[in-house]
Amino acid sequence: MSTHLGLNRLSDIDLRLLRIYKAIVEAGGFAAAEVELNISRAAISMAMGDLETRLGLRLCQRGRAGFSVTDSGQQVYEAILQLFTSIEGFRIRVNALHDQLKGDMNIGIADNLVTLPHMKITNALRQLKLQATDIGINISMMPPNEIEKAVLDGRLHVGAIPRLRKIAELEYIPLYEEESHLYCSHHHPLFDIAEQQGVISLVPNYDAVAPAYAQTAAIKLQYQALKTTSTATDREGVAFLIMTGCFIGYLPTHYATQWIQQGKMKPLCTSHFRYTTDYAVIHKKNAPPNYLVDAWVKELVKI
Fold first, then answer.
1. What pLDDT does 5 receive?
2. Reduced 3-state DSSP string for the chain
3. How many Å apart are CA 146 and CA 160, to the nearest integer?
4. pLDDT at 1
5. 66 φ, ψ to 5°?
6. Where does residue 154 fall: left (phi above 0), alpha (psi -120 to 50 degrees), or beta otherwise?
7. Domain map of the chain by residue range?
8. I need a surface site. Which of 6, 110, 153, 212 has the fewest CB within 10 A?
9. pLDDT value for 303
10. CATH code assigned to 100-174+279-302
11. Would the pTM of this model clear 0.85, i.e. be above it?
12. What are the pLDDT digits (tens) for 256-275?
């Protein structure tokens, strides 16, 4: 890159270019960013060229060897995250001065909570939207550890996660107690005797799928009794393997209900193979006042 004297001011065009670069990095390349940005690869390439010229830095390598971010590009990406967090913080502070429900609320939610019958998250969002029609609600489905990080660094205002540990910088509001049972599909040899007490002694003989995500020590004990031969990164992956008829595995009861009602799945001895997971809503302690978050949490605890 040519010698550059520095970035003297940020225009709206610069912010647009920075958002495009952020999307490229998070998507892992130009091709994947096309869908996210809804613009052509040629437009993305042109925007990147403009940004690199504007900054006087090579941000990424692209070509036959694939996409990679340079050291300077990584530092710029981290600065972009700080910049957009600061912009959002400014919006929150200004809205707080007016004591009005305005702006966006960014929520991170762990997978497969929508089928919970309580629907606390959904109903609280409904009440919030009825109070303030001029707001945006942005939901990101993410692993719990990613939600924690995003709440801590300000990318998310709140999150809904299983409570597996306690982080001092976060506030926790109890949300759900989720029950899980051990299941097999209608193709599995245990299906016809699933509800019989004798199934307990047979379970260790069959292949089981275990979660590849974090669990409490108490839940991990449940898996020690199983013959775990496969893993899945989320509940949907667990369900996929159970439905093959070749594996047994634990699923939340609310998530498995759809297949039970169709006669495609059964729980195995529910009095023995079961555990519960506590869920909580998290938000950052000592964060700037945010009337949207406060209003949503207020509705949440009512339900």
1. 46
2. CCCCCCCCCCCHHHHHHHHHHHHHHHHCCHHHHHHHHCCCHHHHHHHHHHHHHHHCCCCEECCCCCCEECHHHHHHHHHHHHHHHHHHHHHHHHHHHHCCCCEEEEEEECCCCCCCCCCHHHHHHHHHHHHCCCEEEEEEECCHHHHHHHHHCCCCCEEEEECCCCCCCEEEEEEEEEEEEEEEECCCCCHHHCCCCCHHHHHHHCEEEEECCCCCHHHHHHHHCCEEEEEECCHHHHHHHHHCCCCEEEEEHHHHHHHHHCCCEEECCCCCCEEEEEEEEEEECCCCCCHHHHHHHHHHHHC
3. 11
4. 47
5. 105, -175
6. left
7. 12-82, 100-174+279-302, 177-278
8. 6
9. 77
10. 3.40.190.10
11. no
12. 999 999 999 999 999 999 99
Q: Which CATH architecture has domain 12-82?
A: Orthogonal Bundle (1.10)
- Does residue 158 contact residue 283 with C-beta atoms inside 8 Å? yes
The alpha carbon dihedral of 184, 189, 190, 192 has a sign of: positive
Please give the C-alpha separations between residue 68 and each of 16, 44, 82, 226, in angstroms, as whole numbers: 21, 15, 21, 41
Low-confidence stretches of the chain (pLDDT < 50) are 1-3, 5
